[in-house]
Fold this sequence. Notes:
Blueprint: H1 2-69, H2 76-108, E1 116-119, H3 120-129, H4 132-138, E2 141-144, E3 152-155, H5 157-173, E4 180-187, E5 191-198, H6 205-208, H7 220-225, H8 232-242, E6 247-252, E7 256-264, H9 270-276
Parallel strand pairs: 2-4
Antiparallel strand pairs: 1-3, 4-5, 5-7, 6-7
Helix pairs in contact: 1-2, 2-8, 3-5, 5-8
The structure holds adenosine-5'-triphosphate and magnesium ion.
Residues 166, 169-170, 228, 232 line the site of magnesium ion (MG).
Amino acid sequence: LGEFAIKKTNHLNPLKKINEEIHTFAALKQKEIDELKKLETFRKEFVADVSHELKTPIFAAQGFVHTLLDGAVNDKNVRTKFLKKAAKSLDGLDALVQDLLTLSQIETGDIKMKFENIDLYNLCLEAIDQFEQRAKAKGIEIQVAKPEKMIIVHADWLRITQVITNLVSNALKYSNENGQVTIRFEVGKKSVTTFVTDNGEGIPKAHLDRIFERFYRVDKSRSRERGGTGLGLAIVKHILEGHKSKAEVQSVPGHGSTFSFKLPLAKLDSRSTESSA
Ligand SMILES: Nc1ncnc2c1ncn2[C@@H]1O[C@H](COP(=O)(O)OP(=O)(O)OP(=O)(O)O)[C@@H](O)[C@H]1O
Ligand SMILES: [Mg+2]
């Protein structure tokens, strides 16, 4: 009997072990299944969002072109007006597709960040150039605070230009007439924080966590009329992730918002100072 008992426990032990392994394995697989389900829901939502966003400008352009074909083309005044409207919709469509491509390329890793030592103040000055007219038309002043010493960061010039562009574009878009947009820098030992501040409408607290999601807009109806798709900040987030950094936001509704992000200062030897000066 004693012999039998020993045999039995020897048999039981491996069984118990196998049982435990099966349980662990099942739990792991369940976790993977849950992850996949989440991804699938996300993918479905994404496709629905993209289709919806594409449809809007396509329908608009289609409407104008068909009205022209149906006879409006003979009316000289209407002709130009409708063509302009169709062109505007198509430009919007183009911008949307560009944003989608950028996002997907960054996500799939097709865009490799090209790190080099860059002058951050110069980058900002160049980036805001494109907004001169838009700012003037709205009576908004854009200022870049000149740093005491040259700030050289280790970053991708094109991508960080895109970050500044998207942040300043928002600052302008969500500000009132005669607003003020400021870019300033805070230099630390190893990194520099860039702040983009506006005194516009601000963002209610409940939305702050979500504005970096794709297609997320605080006020869908109002931002539609201002032409936003909700991709700008998602792109900002991804580019900064590529720099091992992230965007922060502080906002007081009715008073304005400040977006900020950190970049590492370049480790400069005498040669690289010369070359970037
Ligand atoms: N500076 C800001 N002031 C107030 N609200 C802002 C500001 N920046 C972003 N938001 C809010 O966050 C939302 C998401 O911004 P995001 O830049 O991603 O999209 P968008 O500006 O609507 O469209 P897109 O940038 O794709 O043209 C905006 O719709 C707006 O509601
Ligand atoms: Mg935007």
